[in-house]
Here is the input.
Amino acid sequence: MRAIPQQFVRTTVDREGEAGTAWLAELPGIIEDLLEQWGCVPDGETLHGGVGVVVPVRRPGGERAVLKVSFPHPGNVHEPDAFLAWGGRGAVLLHRRDDERFAMLLERARPTTLAQAAAGPDGDEVLETAGRLHRRLTVPAPPGLPRLSEQAGAWEEQLRRDAAELSHTLPRRTVEATVATVRELGADQPDTLLHGDFHAGNILRADREPWLAVDPKGYVGDPAYDAGTLLKARALSLLEADDLHKAAHHALSVFADAAQLDRERVRRWAQFHAVQAAFWGRRHGFRIARSGPQLDWLTEFADRLGELLGDGP
Here is the structure.
């Protein structure tokens, strides 16, 4: 039986509690059964992300691939549907799927992420690469995928509750601008397939193409929504900039142009993500800081970014 990385065990138990412990007890057996079922042999150490493990394997003909098994969660349900819709266009290929066990056999990419290729506060090359890849991923959505527009009402309700209940430094106009984005852009969105968690850490160096996307959520909605997750993941790199306002708007413009997206929609969705993150951090903490001075600093930075993005370029 293959060993499960201890860091993954700890984070899964911390996040999922008893359900996580029970799933982890079954996970080695699930992996062994899938290896046998799909005729694969292990070809390296077991790796992990935030919600799943990845086992490098060789398929029966010797082709390199990975077996990915994720914790059963509604947010992971439509990942294979997104891969199937893309068919390898800008994303790793889906070879096999087992939806009941939240497992997939995927094309193997390299371990280097686009985030690791970032250089300097602007990171224009990273943003342009991400934008060009995102353009290729923007395709009509297949039926049956969750629509972001269905979350708009809950988003607005949560934003107003957070603004009223939490201590924060966000001006009222910033919160109202975020609510306006939800009302004006959130409720009526196109039938476009979204990655849903699009950032440079989910873009891997590959052999078949220079870069390929991984770990999609498979949502339907406004392609500009993905710009918010991209900037949120790159936000700390902007700290090196002399002018945060200028650097943030520059980053969004570079991505929008490369992705052929409307700059204003990109800015508004990015501001939504920043404000949402500021409130989320106060209630739940962040992955890199759950409490203490670092959490306070991160939430204040999210406040500042949300306020700056609420203003024009």
